[in-house]
Amino acid sequence: MERLAAVEDVVARLRGELEEMGVVLPSLGVDPVTMAGDAAAPLVDLGRCNLETATRLVEALRGLQGVRGARG
């Protein structure tokens, strides 16, 4: 149960951060196969998205690179 709570928390935080950047990954969630097995750490399934969403994700990541470059 602790594993499930931890991965669900990360998924929720990731969803929130992405939404703030205008990116919605409709299939974002916990990978059920890794939760059912004996994997040391469950996987986060980023899922599938359309071209518009993928483009927004690229733009958001590029924006973060600019922020990192300005700090470094």
Model description:
- By secondary structure, the protein is mainly alpha-helical.
- The chain has 3 helices and 2 strands, in the order αβαβα.
- It has one domain (about 1-70).
- The protein is about 60% helix and about 5% strand.
- Strands 1-2 form a two-stranded antiparallel sheet.
- The N and C termini lie far apart (about 40 Å).
Spell out the key features of this protein.
single chain, 72 residues, mainly alpha, two-stranded antiparallel sheet
Task: Walk me through the topology.
Layout: H1 2-20, E1 29-30, H2 32-36, E2 44-45, H3 51-71
Antiparallel strand pairs: 1-2
Report the order of strands and helices: HEHEH
Q: Quote the beta fraction.
A: 5-15%
Give the terminus-to-terminus CA distance.
Answer: 39 Å
Instruction: Estimate nothing, just give the exact number of structural domains.
Output: 1
> Strands of the biggest beta sheet: in what spatial order?
1-2
Q: Give the radius of gyration.
A: 14 Å
- Structural class comes to mainly alpha
Sheet with the most strands?
2 strands, antiparallel
- The total beta strand count reads 2
